[in-house]
Amino acid sequence: MAATLPSLAIPGQRLGSTTSYAAGPGTHVHDTVIYASIAGPVIVDQAQAKSKSKSLLTVSRSINRQTGATPSGAATVKPTVSTTAPKPATTKPKLKYNTLPAVDSVVLARVTRVQKRQVAVSILVVLDELSSTQVSDPSKTTSDNDNIESILSSAANPENHSSSDELRFQALIRKEDVRAVEKDRVVMDEMFRVGDIVRGTIISLGDQSFYYITTARNDLGVVMARSEAGNMMFPVSWKEMRDPVTSLGELRKVARPF
């Protein structure tokens, strides 16, 4: 009798055998046994009834906002849909929070180091689908990821930079990923400064040390920045922000305001 799959897995946890399942994203195989590679809910994609293929066993990076993990202790099973019957209209599940940054995740990050060919950033928060619609009742928020205002307020304070950056996920913005046009003319010192808050998208999980982020879209780039005088600036164009006190402008790769 096959062992019951857990609803939530932790890295290294034994999930099942390759005789019963095929290993999917978030898992790895060792000696015909499938283990979890990341923390997250366990999902089983059932094979088609007439197919000889095995059910796909995966560990997701995200938890469903509405249902979360299954309360029964069993893995979430995705039902199969017949190819002859019309597909029912389904709504993409909304995510409560992401356990890890994933490819195509939109993140807010703080610039920690600017070099000639790349910028190092510290990821502050992974934005989910409800990031633009904050919960009106603060008592109903169950994750730090929901309270983006407090995260940005803390991140904008220079006194909090050194104490928290080393505890966060690190990422790089390479010169060729700053913008979509005239990439050879990009000067990193004119695009970002240390302390800037940047909205970007994960394009690669990178290596064991850094994710890779791009800002090569109009809605991506610097969203919060302080001037050399220490004042919060506001955007005046896609490449300039201005100090409201001194009226002096500074170059940035500015994200388009919503």
TrEMBL record:
Exosome complex component N-terminal domain spans which residues? 8-45
- Compartmental location: Nucleus, Nucleolus
What keywords is this UniProt entry annotated with?
Cytoplasm, Exosome
Q: Where is the Exosome complex component CSL4 C-terminal domain?
A: 100-205
Q: Please cite one Gene Ontology biological process associated with this protein.
A: RNA processing
Segments carrying the region annotation (Disordered) are 67-90
Q: Do you know which Gene3D superfamilies this protein is assigned to?
A: 2.40.50.100, Nucleic acid-binding proteins (2.40.50.140)
Q: Which GO terms describe its cellular component?
A: cytoplasm; nuclear exosome (RNase complex); nucleolus
| GO MF annotations, alphabetized | RNA binding
Q: Where is the composition biased (Low complexity)?
A: 74-90
Cited InterPro entries: Csl4 (IPR039771), EXOSC1_C (IPR019495), Exosome_cplx_N_dom (IPR025721), NA-bd_OB-fold (IPR012340)
Per its record, how is this protein called by name? Exosome complex component CSL4 C-terminal domain-containing protein
Can you name the source organism? Aspergillus glaucus CBS 516.65
For this protein's source organism, the top of the classification is: Eukaryota, Fungi, Dikarya, Ascomycota, Pezizomycotina
